[in-house]
Write a structure and sequence with these properties.
Length: 452
């Protein structure tokens, strides 16, 4: 595309959506502006601050529950439900895995985070404790989003404003405070940044920690291994796998040492049936019941299919497969074949939306569908409380199917836009300004994540 350099280097000039959005702050960057003179750290700082504003707006969106509590069906009709509210469960002297505790069904590191924040909540009424826990959780989530933005900008340091796809995504206005999923996302993005800096052991440790916060990072590790193996970087693969396994072993070992059962969430998952967001729930709505054990097999097959698709894409002749779109594609396959696809699952794709330089038009189309789905799912969940007011099952199935198609389209589009970014980096394009624009010099390794 002829506008790729402008769209990526100076979004307010080359991207129509970004240009229109800048009208509220004085218009696009000037033709002779010294683009990039302040470096990637400046862009990361600005975007991190803006991301906190989005989290603050999400707090306002959940104002009804903050004032009145998170009980159902009120939290469903007002679309302010959050897992953070149950973080106060359990006694102060409990462990992350104590019966009735908030972390009992969470992966190990997420359980520890949920349990640890409980110690900062003073005693009081249940509502007062939930309000304080939610406030603390919101601050932690805002910081984790900032970490994710900074890590993304550090990967694409010659085009740092791409991190705006993380910081300014509309999905932060609805999904950021539903759970602590962003904890795993931040760990994964830090791991990708470490890999981009050629620190495979550290990358493995961070990605392994991400696995202990949620299972999705496993498929990202697989994507990295496929690309690195193609490039004959087996020493780096060994360090990556070693770091990941060591971190996971330490976390699991410490969990067992304090009397916990870190594998309990995975047993719960194995016994669970189809849940919200999954295509298999659509099948159940259509009166096609699928047993829980069959869904487990299907979900595992989804991981296998993702790896096989990754193998095919990496080994295509005369094509240099890039890591970012490959990881996004494999991640989407795992998501849409799983037993559930929660409203906060969208957070996991945000770093890859940035690393593939997705056009804002496509980003906002996908995000718009996510926001609509966010509203629709609560109306469907509330079906049992007031069928006349709620969204019928058939209507929910339609919105769910549209959402799944949007994710497939997101993965498909990422291959084209990632090529635009690689063309910009390889051409050494420095923007239309008269000022100096940092290129790919020094020790920046952003190309490792983009092309590897």
């Amino acid at each position: 595309m002829t506008d790729a350099p402008l769209r990526i280097r100076v979004p307010s000039q080359g991207d129509g959506v970004a240009r229109l959005a800048t009208e509220v702050i004085g218009g696009p960057t000037g033709r002779y502006a010294a683009v990039g003179r302040r470096g990637w750290a400046y862009a990361a700082a600005v975007l991190s601050a803006l991301a906190s504003v989005f989290v603050a707006v999400d707090v306002l969106q959940k104002n009804h529950c903050i004032r009145s509590g998170w009980g159902t069906p009120g939290s469903l009709w007002r679309e302010c439900y959050s897992d953070l509210a149950v973080g106060t469960a359990g006694s102060p002297g409990s462990t992350p895995w104590s019966p009735g505790g908030a972390g009992a069904t969470q992966p190990p590191l997420t359980a520890v985070l949920t349990w640890g924040l409980r110690h900062f909540v003073p005693s009081g009424t249940l509502l007062a404790q939930q309000q304080r826990y939610f406030a603390i959780g919101a601050v932690v989530i805002a910081l984790l989003i900032g970490v994710t933005v900074i890590a993304t900008a550090s990967i694409t340091r010659s085009t740092p404003w791409l991190a705006a796809h993380v910081a300014l995504s509309p999905i932060l206005l609805t999904a950021s405070l539903v759970s602590f999923d962003i904890f795993g996302v931040a760990l994964v993005t830090l791991g990708l940044a470490a890999w981009a800096r050629r620190r495979p052991a550290l990358a493995g440790a961070l990605l392994g920690a991400g696995v202990m916060a949620r299972s999705y990072p496993l498929i990202i590790i697989a994507a990295i291994i496929l690309v690195a193996a193609r490039d004959h970087r087996m020493r780096h693969v060994g360090a990556l796998i070693g770091g990941a396994l060591a971190t996971m072993a330490v976390v699991l070992g410490l969990s067992y040492a304090v009397g916990g059962d870190p594998l309990a969430p995975y047993r719960v998952w194995n016994a669970a049936g189809a849940s919200y967001g999954s295509p298999w729930l659509i099948a159940e709505i259509a009166q096609v019941a699928i047993p829980a054990h069959a869904l487990t097999v299907i979900a595992i097959l989804g991981w296998v299919i993702a790896v096989l698709v990754g193998l095919y894409l990496v080994n295509r002749p005369n094509v240099q497969t890039r890591l970012a779109p490959l990881a996004l594609t494999m991640l989407v396959i795992v998501m849409i074949t799983g037993k559930s696809m929660s409203v906060q699952s969208c957070l996991w794709v945000l770093p890859f939306v940035a690393l593939t330089a997705l056009r804002w038009r496509e980003h906002l189309t996908w995000a718009g569908i996510e926001v609509v789905y966010f509203a629709m799912i609560w109306m469907y969940v509330a079906l049992s409380s007031n069928p006349a007011k709620a969204l019928p099952a058939a209507g929910y199935a339609i919105f769910c199917a549209i959402r799944l198609i949007a994710y497939i389209g997101l993965a498909w589009t990422s291959w084209e836009t990632a090529e635009d970014l690689e063309d910009v980096l390889e051409s050494g394009y420095r923007g239309p300004s008269a000022g100096e624009v940092p290129g790919r010099g020094g020790d920046s390794q952003d190309h490792l994540v983009i092309a590897d």
